[in-house]
Design goal:
Elements: H1 2-66, H2 68-73, H3 76-83, H4 87-104, E1 108-113, E2 118-121, H5 139-145, E3 150-155, E4 162-172, E5 175-184, H6 187-192, E6 198-203, E7 209-212, H7 227-235, E8 249-254, E9 260-266, E10 279-290, E11 295-302, H8 304-318, H9 323-365, E12 369-373, E13 379-382, H10 384-390, H11 394-397, H12 411-419, E14 428-436, E15 442-454, E16 457-466, H13 468-555, H14 559-587, E17 595-598, H15 599-617, E18 620-622, E19 631-634, H16 636-653, E20 661-668, E21 672-678, H17 709-719, E22 723-728, E23 734-741
Parallel strand pairs: 18-20
Antiparallel strand pairs: 1-2, 1-5, 3-4, 4-5, 6-7, 6-11, 8-9, 9-10, 10-11, 12-13, 12-16, 14-15, 15-16, 17-19, 20-21, 21-23, 22-23
Length: 751
């Protein structure tokens, strides 16, 4: 019996133990599952709140800049640069964009024409300037050229830095002529996201991660991209040469309560079957699209805390028999959770207050007046710049109509916009008007009225810029342009009159120069008259003697002897004709036309003129050989005059010598024939080398000349396309260098 009872008890105990174990297992499992569900719900709630906060932060960052391209697109400086792309307008656009960028603290601001070529940029003075770069391949350019607002994230093709781009078309006569782009840097947002329990990602429309608190996840994707998407992204150079590989997600499960549980490998997988050497982590993924941006903000909350909570719950159930310990642990856990929730709420409230304070500070410190209106056009708030512009305190104008701040003639257009129906009202009113200050003075303003909706409540926001200085600049520019046009007309008239007088002076100078050349030639003839007279006296005396003898021989009947005397008289007359002929040729005026001249003819003419004087002073002129084969472009008579003048000057420089010698050398350069005329006198003083060819400069004694010979010779050589210069010879004496263009021998000359 006892054995049966013992066996029965053992059986019941086994069943009880089995029941307890089963119950314990069921309770532990169920409690663990419930704990997991609750933990995930709490994690989802916290991460959802964090997601909202991060979206708000990112939205505020983008909203700060989204309307700037549209505002800049209507600025006259940029439209002028597109319409008249000269250096001045482009430089003005560069400076204006640089000033704008300094004010708004964006990464870069630049202007492209309708071909995608950047013609002006805020970084125009930097080494990596965008000016001259073509970004027609960027989607934000293509969107703007289609008349849409462009928004795009990419790596800069020049800076290689991440940036978010806002673009807007520039219109001219309802035609898109260019695109304004504002690039902002989102790095500061990434640096602010430092929650250790969350991994925050921002992806583009293709799922490419470009902002992440995990450095290794940047430029990776949440899912594999199609080949077409990879090719499209590569063609747009959106992410440079980064390989857009997907995160190694090995498990993905959607939750009914929201969010997705994902398990991904933290490292590189060794193969597809095993995870040896790598660590898999589980996250609760939640995402939300950022409105009108093409961006998606994703938070990955680690489930490690949930697993820890499950462990503690299971441990608590395992030690259910220690009720007090379990109760204390539960109370402590509850207390900790309550404290954390309170702390989180406190932090959340503080963060919202700080954000509100920061937004208010931004509004108060903006360079534009900002006024909010209710649906009836009454003022609700005014920032400090608005108070400064109009001279009112915010409390004094609150609930007043906006017309109080506008001149009488500008109120109608504003009220038309405010009172229009939603279907007829434009998205915003942009116009120039005149503001009315508290003291009754008016000033020019740029007025923008936009509407903003908070659910069913309608509000208006008014942006006001004081354009007094811009108007003054426009007036000054108009006055300066009119003054410049007047000065240009006056200067043009003066230049026309001066040009006419100059032409008259040139004509008079040419006539005077020709007369001086002829006078100098006659002066040379006068100087040579004594030598010519001596040369003619000898033939005349001989003619007289031969004539008397011929007469006597005829009386004696000696006709043969008389005939010989007559023949001698004939020869003497030919000799006299030869003496006189060069003088006649030298004294006549030349035609001035350049033609091939043989230097042998020049030599013969000059020597026939000078031979009497040369014989008188027992001078010797050493000419080079082969003059009959040398031809230059010029005029024979005028070239003879120059050589006669240079030889005469050389003789005067050596008048103290018993047997003066003049050396003449000849050589050819690639385009020139060069004649060197050297004397053996004292040379030209070094200080006077640059003055030798000035009119009336002379070192001769009084009565030997006026100092015009070298000046006239210089002009003669210059008029023939040549050059005349002077220098002192190292061994003494002056060397005059004549350079004349080389000429071909005429066809009728047989060499």
């Amino acid at each position: 019996m006892s054995h049966i009872l013992s066996t029965t008890w053992r059986r019941y105990r086994l069943l009880f133990v089995t029941f307890l174990v089963s119950t314990f297992v069921v309770v532990v499992v169920q409690t663990t599952l419930i704990s997991r569900t609750q933990g995930l719900d709490e994690l989802q709630h916290r991460s959802s709140a964090d997601l909202n906060r991060y979206i708000l932060s990112l939205q505020q960052k983008l909203d700060r800049y989204k309307d700037l391209p549209k505002l800049l697109s209507s600025h006259s400086t940029l439209t002028d640069a597109l319409q008249w792309p000269d250096n001045l307008s482009t430089q003005r656009a560069n400076i204006y964009l640089e000033q704008v960028n300094q004010s708004i603290n964006a990464a870069d601001v630049y202007l492209m024409n309708n071909l995608g070529l950047t013609i002006a940029a805020s970084n125009w003075a930097n080494e990596r300037s965008f000016v001259g770069k073509n970004y027609a391949f960027r989607p934000y350019f293509k969107d703007a050229m289609e008349g849409k607002v462009g928004r795009y994230f990419a790596l800069g093709s020049v800076s290689k830095k991440r940036g978010y781009y806002f673009s807007y078309p520039v219109y001219e006569h309802h035609q898109i002529v260019g695109v304004v782009v504002v690039k902002i840097d989102l790095n500061e947002i990434e640096s602010d996201w430092t929650d250790p329990d969350l991994d925050i990602l921002v992806t583009d429309e293709d799922g490419v991660i470009f902002i992440s608190t995990q450095t290794d996840w940047k430029f990776r994707t949440l899912k594999p991209l199609s080949q077409q998407a990879v090719q499209r992204i590569a063609e747009s150079l959106r992410y440079g040469d980064h390989q857009l590989t997907a995160l190694d997600i090995i498990e993905k499960k959607e939750r009914e309560e929201g969010g997705t549980l994902v398990t991904l490998v933290d490292g590189d997988r060794i193969n597809n079957e095993a995870l040896d050497g790598v660590q898999a982590k589980e996250f609760l993924l939640q995402s939300r699209d950022l409105e009108d941006s093409g961006l998606t903000v994703v938070v990955l909350a680690s489930t490690k805390s949930v697993k820890v909570k499950m462990f503690y719950t299971a441990l608590t159930i395992g030690f259910i028999f220690i009720a007090l310990v379990l109760l204390i642990m539960v109370l402590l856990t509850r207390q900790r959770i309550t404290r954390e929730r309170a702390r989180f709420k406190l932090l959340e409230t503080k963060a919202l207050e700080e954000n509100e304070t920061r937004v208010r500070a931004i509004i108060d410190n903006t360079q534009a007046g900002l006024i909010t209106l209710d649906a009836q056009g009454r003022i609700e708030s005014m920032n400090s710049m608005g108070e400064k512009l109009f001279g009112y305190d915010e409390v004094n104008v609150r609930s007043e109509y906006i017309s109080k701040l506008l001149a009488q003639e500008d109120r109608a257009i504003c009220w038309q916009h405010l009172t229009a129906s939603d279907e007829d009202r434009q998205s915003e009113l942009f116009t120039e008007a005149r503001g009315l200050r508290k003291n009754g003075s008016v000033f020019p303003i740029e007025l923008i009225i936009g509407h903003m909706d908070y659910g069913a409540i309608k509000r208006f926001i008014v942006t006001i810029h004081d354009i007094t200085q811009r108007k003054q600049y426009e007036e000054e520019l108009k006055h300066a342009r009119e003054l410049l046009e007047h000065r240009v007309e006056e200067r043009t008239a003066d230049l026309t009159d001066a040009n006419r007088k100059l032409l008259e002076e040139v004509e008079k100078h040419q006539n005077t120069q020709d007369e001086l050349i002829q006078t100098a030639k006659l002066a040379v003839l006068g100087q040579m008259s004594a030598g010519i007279n001596h040369e003619l006296n000898q033939p005349l005396t001989a003619i007289r003697t031969y004539a008397d003898n011929a007469q006597a021989f005829l009386k004696l009947g000696r006709t043969d002897t008389a005939e010989k005397n007559l023949n001698e008289i004939s020869k003497l007359t030919e000799r006299m004709a030869k003496i006189i002929h060069p003088l006649k040729e030298f004294s006549r005026k030349t035609s001035g036309n350049a033609e091939p001249v043989c230097l042998k003819n020049v030599h013969d003419g000059a020597m026939s003129i000078m031979y009497g004087r040369l014989n008188k002073v027992k001078a010797q002129v050493n000419w080079p050989h082969d003059l009959d084969r040398s031809y230059v472009m010029g005029d024979t008579v005028r070239l003879e005059q120059v050589l006669v003048n240079l030889i005469s000057n050389a003789l005067q420089a050596m008048e103290s010598e018993q047997a003066p010698v003049v050396d003449i050398e000849l050589y050819n350069e690639p385009k020139w024939t060069v004649l060197l005329v050297r004397d053996h006198g004292l040379g030209v003083p070094e200080d006077d080398l640059n003055r030798v060819f000035e009119p009336f400069y002379t070192t001769k004694k009084a009565g030997q000349g006026l100092g015009l010979g070298l000046s006239i010779s210089f002009r003669i050589i210059e008029s023939m396309g040549g050059q005349l210069s002077v220098e002192n010879h190292p061994q003494g004496g002056a060397v005059f260098k004549i350079c004349l263009p080389i000429a071909q021998a005429p066809d009728n000359v047989i060499s």
